[in-house]
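Entry for the shared binder. Reason: the reviewer on the internal report wants the predicted structure included alongside the sequence.
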Amino acid sequence: MISQLTAELQEAIDFHKAVLAEGSKALVGYDTAKAVANVVLLSEIPTTYDKRSDRQVNAGNLLLRGVPGVGKTFFGVILSAISDAKFARIQGRADLQPTEVVGFQMINPSTGQLVTEFGPMASAEVILLDEINRIPLKSQSAFLEALQDRTITVGKETYDLPAFSFAIATMNPVELGQGTFPLSEAATDRFAVIVNIGYLPPDQEEKLVKFDFKQVRLNPLLSKQRIIELRALINQQVFLHDRLGKYIQRLVAATRPYNPETEWRQHSPSDLVERGVDLGASPRAIICWSRLAKVWALLQRGRAEVFPEDIQDLAPFVLGHRIWLGPHAAAHGLTSEQVIRDVIEQVPIP
């Protein structure tokens, strides 16, 4: 029996529709990408221990991959505007220092006191890490604590990020120039989903000829506190059957090849995984997928219950950055998209 929609769940659906309409003012096309971005925004994904039970830890970070000029930056602008959140952008570059991200401590020469100067990561509620793969590894590591634990460490002190904290990172898949630093497996796994942003269809690109950013005005749609509350309500009120939870686990497990070095001694039902994948999805993918499926079922399908197709719809976004192909696979033209499709086909629906 399908669960009934409560007033709170209907409020979340109405908010989602309003976000898509409002976002269309600033960004032409990309309807699916906008929908996924808002699904991540409304997902409560606790992936770390927090001794403060009253603090909402949400790890629903968003990774956008696309060529320059397709509007990736506007996802951050839109989501901060509709929630009336403080927005900050960090531009990736090869000489970016960790202190420019989280902050630093110094002695005030006039008072002799230790002063802490915070970076944008400490105060921004929606932060855009633009071209994150142009940031050197030592500065990439400065993001990891914030993306996972929603805290930053400056000197010897650890500070909480704002209660409403959402990170978006962009990266260019066509690395024609020098000075790029591929994200590590640990860094990529901190993002709940990846969305590939391609070129628009010709009929939508034609709309850009007369598009005027001066006429764009984005309005706040919901308070930050209410968004936090809706995250918890969706997780509590949207039903995910235990058998579908096991289905998610089997899908994630099927992305991993047999490998005694990682203590994974099961063979995948997908031959493509066994032949071409070096590293499959992590346990964190299970946590993200189960929470995202609830929000997707509600916002995209208008249901208070998760169906198998909701889980399958999200597979490319949850797994796309968590499947690491071996060099031999790339040489034979194997892509992560092909692997994901094969995993979906080989794992039976309960």
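Summary line for the report: The CA atoms of residues 264 and 337 lie 23 Å apart.
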